[in-house]
Specification:
By secondary structure, this protein is of the alpha/beta class. The chain has a single domain, classed as NAD(P)-binding Rossmann-like Domain (Rossmann fold). The chain contains 8 helices and 10 strands. It has a two-stranded parallel ribbon. A two-stranded parallel ribbon has the order 2-5. The longest helix is centred in the N-terminal third of the chain and has 20 residues, at 14-33.
């Protein structure tokens, strides 16, 4: 699935709708006032200094904080959903490229690795790297509107010269080196998950 089709599906959620509307607004404004404008669509970004205090942060950070507190990673759905993960330095390179080239002016541009990895595999890689073997928890919950599979079609930005330089193995290793250096790593996910349930953002699968 291309990122463009994924974005269209996300218009069914308030979060997705705001992203699409902001992108259209920025590109139209740039065209009308004559200022070169690019709408970069980042795939799932991770890396050192990603918040370990924000329970809504990326899945790698959440899995790390859970495992480091002797708690199981939690899967929504079945853990087989896939994501395209991009290391933060590659995202920075994409921004610099967009600022320097005119090949992307006026365009929405996907930024990602172009490779998909399942949530289950991410949890396994984190567990193996930390040396903490706790089986993941699947509690029959899901988030309405969440995409099953997300992989960025990166042909446009690659044609402009973009090449991701940090693969998942290296990026994950560098993130774990950083998180091990932190003095306090608490689990904030449990409390946040309850809030999400109470607000109806997370639903439980019910038998039909």
């Amino acid at each position: 699935m291309s990122r463009l089709r994924a974005c269209r599906r996300r218009k069914k959620t308030v979060y997705g709708l705001t992203k699409v509307d902001q992108e259209k607004l920025v590109l139209l404004w740039g065209k009308q006032v004559g200022i070169p404008t690019v709408a970069l669509r980042y795939s799932c970004t991770y890396g050192p200094r990603q918040s370990i205090f924000n329970p809504y942060t990326g899945v790698i950070a959440i899995f790390c904080t859970r495992l480091l507190n002797s708690l199981p990673p939690v899967f929504y759905e079945d853990g087989e959903q896939t994501r395209d993960l991009s290391f933060v330095e590659d995202i920075a390179r994409a921004n610099l490229l967009a600022a320097k080239t005119d090949a992307l002016d006026g365009l929405p541009v996907n930024v990602g690795s172009g490779k998909a990895v399942s949530v289950r595999e991410i949890a396994q890689r984190v567990s193996d790297a930390l040396g903490i073997k706790i089986p993941p928890e699947i509690n029959g919950e899901f988030r309405p509107g969440e995409m099953r599979h997300l992989i960025s079609g990166t042909e446009r930005i690659r044609a402009a010269g973009y090449v991701p330089q940090v693969d998942l193995e290296e990026g994950l290793g560098r993130y774990l080196d950083w998180i091990r250096s932190q003095s306090e790593v608490r689990d904030y996910f449990s409390e946040a998950a309850e809030i999400l349930r109470n607000k109806g953002i997370v639903h439980r699968v019910t038998a039909s």
